[in-house]
């Protein structure tokens, strides 16, 4: 059994899911894949189930009853993984904004480089984003700068969703105490790893916006991040934040 597993949360990703799964399994390094689907109306889960006979004991599926947020999908996946013997646990989107080839670079940063959290970073070496309008690039870049300023984390891409965790990190963090359910979940996980003094490393990657399917970003997700980060920092200062 390989020591790495890739968690891919999905909601209406029928255009991408088969291709992304096949890409991961075509890599020179062996990974398992766990898809966490939020009852996609487009039957994404049906496509995954059809592939399980091809990738027997390598491709796994959790089907949830409804759309409950990115953060809770990952936590469900983390809990499933921690019941098994995987050492390295990856987060990756289904829409090819994260290049599957970079999984090996994140893996090596942990396995060989000693990182306990390896972040696929859009902003470590400038701005490496393709196919986004300038307004969205600026919003994302400023959001990461804002989070870094508030939290004092030495991380350039604080909102990145392409991450490899050493198992020890997820065992240490109290997953049931995670507050955020949207994209701010990514910030909270990094912040808790930072407070716990885990070794966080950024690996430069190129982020390419989806070409198929629709984005799940919304105004409520953005506001959760803006105001939630301030509350999160205040709680950490008064020792009210559980790692």
**CA-based gyration radius:** 17 Å
Strand composition percent = 15-25%
CATH architecture: Alpha-Beta Complex
Average of per-residue pLDDT values = 92
Structural class: alpha/beta
The tally of structural domains comes to: 1
Write out the CATH superfamily name. Spore Coat Polysaccharide Biosynthesis Protein SpsA, Chain A
Tally of DSSP β-strands? 9
CATH class categorisation: Alpha Beta
What is the CATH third-level topology name? Spore Coat Polysaccharide Biosynthesis Protein SpsA, Chain A
**How many helices does DSSP assign?**
8
> In what order do the strands lie side by side in the largest sheet?
3-2-1-4-7-5-8
Spell out the helices and strands N to C. Answer: EHEHEHEHEEHEHHEEH
**Morphology call:** globular
Poorly predicted regions? none
* Assembly form of the protein: single chain
What descriptors fit this protein?
243 residues; alpha/beta; Spore Coat Polysaccharide Biosynthesis Protein SpsA, Chain A; two-stranded parallel ribbon; globular; transferase; DPM1-like
What does this structure look like?
The chain is α/β, with parallel strands linked by helices and 243 residues long. It has one domain (4-237): Spore Coat Polysaccharide Biosynthesis Protein SpsA, Chain A. The protein is 40% helix and 16% strand. It has 8 helices and 9 strands. The chain has helices at residues 17-25, 44-52, 70-82, 102-111, 134-151, 167-172, 184-195, 219-237; strands at 4-10, 32-37, 59-63, 88-91, 117-121, 129-130, 163-166, 200-204, 207-208. Strands 3-2-1-4-7-5-8 form a 7-stranded mixed β-sheet, with helices on both faces. Helix 2 (44-52) links the parallel strand 2 (32-37) and strand 3 (59-63). The longest helix is centred in the last third of the chain and has 19 residues, at 219-237. The chain is globular and about 50 Å long.
